[in-house]
Amino acid sequence: MPDWNEHIRKQLAELKLAPAREEEIVEEMSQHAADRYRELQNGGATEEEARRITLNELTGHELLARELRAVERTNAPELVVLGAANKGQMLAGFVQDLRFGFRTLRKSPGFTSVAILALALGIGANTAIFTVVNSVLLQPLAYSDPDRLLKIFETTSEFNHSSVAYPNYLDWRRESRSFTGMGAYRSDGFNFTGAGDPEQLSGEYVSASLFPVLGATPLLGRNFLPEEDRQGAACSVMLSYAFWQRRFGGDRNILGKSLTLNAASCTVVGVMAGNFRFRDDAQVFIPNEQWNGMELHSRESHPGLRVIGRLRPGITIQAAQAEMSAIANGLAGQYPATNAGHGAAVVRWKDDMVQNIRPTLLLLVGAVGFVLIIACANVANLLLARSAARRREFAIRAALGAARGRVVRQLLTESVLLSLGAAAVGLLIARWGTSLILSAAPGSLPRSAEVGIDSYVLLFTLAVSIVTGILFGLAPAFQGANANPQESLKEGTHGAGGGRHRAEGVFVAVEIGLAVILLAGAGLMMQSVWRLLQVDPGFNTRNLLTMQVALSPKVMASPAGIRLAYWQLLGRVASIPGIQAAAITSMVPLGDGDSEIGFWPGTGPQPPEDRMTSAMFNIVTPDYPGVMQFPLRRGRFFTDRDNLASPPVVVIDDVMAKHLFPGQDPVGRRISVILLGPVQIVGVVGHVKQWGLDTDDTNKIRDQIYFPLQQVPDKFMSAGVTGLTLALRTGPEPLSMVSAARAKVAGPTQDQPIYAVRTMEQIISTSLAERRFTMLLLIIFAATALLLAAVGIYGVMSYAVTRRIRELGIRAALGASSQEIVGLVLREGIRLAAIGMAAGLFAAFALTRFMAGLLYGVGPADPLTLAAVTLLLGGTALLACYIPARRATAVDPIVALRCE
Amino acid sequence: MEDRAIDREWKKGSAELLLLSLLEALPRHGYEISKLIEQRSHGTLRFHAASLYPLLYRLEKRGWIQGRWVEKSGQRRRRYYRLTAQGRKVLAAQRQGWQAFVKAISRITGVEHA
Which one of A212, A441, A446, A542 is CB 3.0 to 4.6 Å from A773, fit for a cystine? Predict the structure, then answer.
């Protein structure tokens, strides 16, 4: 028996009937066809004849379609009753809901655009924050099997996560069994000369094993060979994709050519792929052992070496940690002088990378979520007001037999349509917002190069908008569905039950409560940043210019040459008009670099590592106090006579003086410093907040030792003392001095570039970047929340006045003064605001605890902030209520009474 | 050729009447209706599915007949059409009109041919 259904369906297709109706016709007619076919066969027709005749009668000359068009087209699709529906009907109903929803929304463009705008703000802000959270916190690192990449640190009594001594790394790698491989790297600067303008490059010293451990293969050439990572090997270099493109125009014949880096000739052996992400600004990679600082092979020195291991499959992090602790213990027993008290800590690499930013991002996720809820509450109120106006429509539909679920579904479809529209606009806002976030968070955001809108973000936005649509649509939908047909039809246009006002009141109170929380968060961050800016860093931050200097490769050959070069450079720079003082320093306060050194009192033999104290160690030239303008408390600072020919001297800060020589004069006393031996203290200066404005007070190492550059022994005066910072005290605006300084530093050979030029004010600003970033976003969110809450309470109060216009008119007619009427209206608004604020303060009290780590100088429950927030919000709410209240007094009693 | 032309003209004017008449006694399904028309007219009148069903739907829409799915054991369900009260009135009126019409026609044609 042939299948007639398809033939019939084809005829019906152009009629676009409701699916359920179409199915019915197909069933009925195909049965007719089957009967006819059987009849023809019984009458002696062949199968083929019977089929042809039946088909012709059924569909010949398009008769069926023509005839049906006249009948069915005018038919409205059958009303679908939820629950009693099959799949086809459900679908038909859904399509109908969509069409109806579109029509309804198009009919009130004002409402639709306001609602979409409010929601788009909320959804857009959420999408922007999620875009960042997704790329930074959620997405795995861009390496193969990234979850097994672990970072391994040394631990000391002072640091949980210290950099690693190179010989320790070599021992770890040899002895551990938990890892399939281990690699080490160390950031450094490279003076690139011999090809156009000299340029200072940031780069990484890496072990030959590092890229294989990461699972990274170069785009061109090969990874480093183990024999290239040996002392005395010829220098080889790998280039980052960006550097290769920028300086060599993507020349594929670059392999085998040589580059002059720090005066050494290095052969290019590979170019990394464009999507390889490792220390985003690294432009060149050089094997570790090419570093000729002799500190590399000393267990005492920790020159910023970081170690990455790839966990062997089947081994847990805990097992790896246990093994590494055992190895570190063994080394401590073997080398007590350097390793006593040193352990090893194993951390998932990604966790290490994002651990600092995680609390900030989670805080922002919470804050931006509140903004969305506020937007939802506002739109829900708009919908409630609309659903009151549409009561007659719902009542008529109910009277005609529409089930309650059916009306709910229709209204929810409308609200989801709204939120989907908002999601489309929100995505645009999110794209713009994401770039805003990235530009507001320079440097302080790890993995920022990876941030972008991907399929996860799109899914998130879709999910948020659907959930949002249902969330803000629920209350109005049930309100509409509960319409009692008789009551509503009788009531006329004034009808609105008490439930609606209760719901509106709750929404407004929730909005105000959430706004309190956001304002409290923003207020606390503002206070923290403001208080930080008041902190005295211990030196004069104004008109202070810093820049890093790369010496000419020609002078690097001998220690004496390096000393002379710095001395001459200082002389040239100090002669620039407008420069009041110039000095060289190895550490910039509040900057990123730090260096510590172990010391012990007296001149006795070196105690084991765990009984030594650490201090920050700063190598400077004599005019350093003149540049920094910090106070000399006792004795003297360095002079030109403190050189290799005179006994080694140090200056310490007052924190160290108090700590080491309480109640005594340290000047003239002796201490011993690792690598240098005994030194004499000649002066005491004020403490400088080296670690940053916020954390310096709580840091474990605060003692500071200054050592004259001219006394640095020859054996360290090579590559170990490059990349020093030139600090200048200027009369005029510091940045106006840069070009003069650049010219003077370049020197006669014109091959000494300056780089990383920053004023101290910029450095401070960078050191506050993360807090400032959090503060900025919280202020934006809080302002949005305040605005939305104000609009929300204004809307509700305006509606309340309209609703009570008869009552107010009667009161006025009976002699109520305008103050009494204003008071009457205000009271209702203030009651809502007060409930919201009380709940909000309570919640803020509970929630701001979570941002305690981001605050400075202010407690999470700071009464001043909370009071200010209450005042601001209360004032706004009062104003938002007062406008409709004023309008109420303008009501003419006669008009009000007549308007029934 | 001539036969088909008559066929079409007849149907156009009288199809509704035919259908309503056939449903007067008891509910029937579409195929049954088409068979009855063919049988009772001794094959002179024939309704194909393509014209029968649209007509049924039109009558149903006007409220003269009502279709309902009926399931009998061991068979596919079928849609049976029955005459509504309104349909019954329409049928009575149409039948009257038709008889008057036929009487008038045969008076004329009978005189001519007599």
Answer: A441
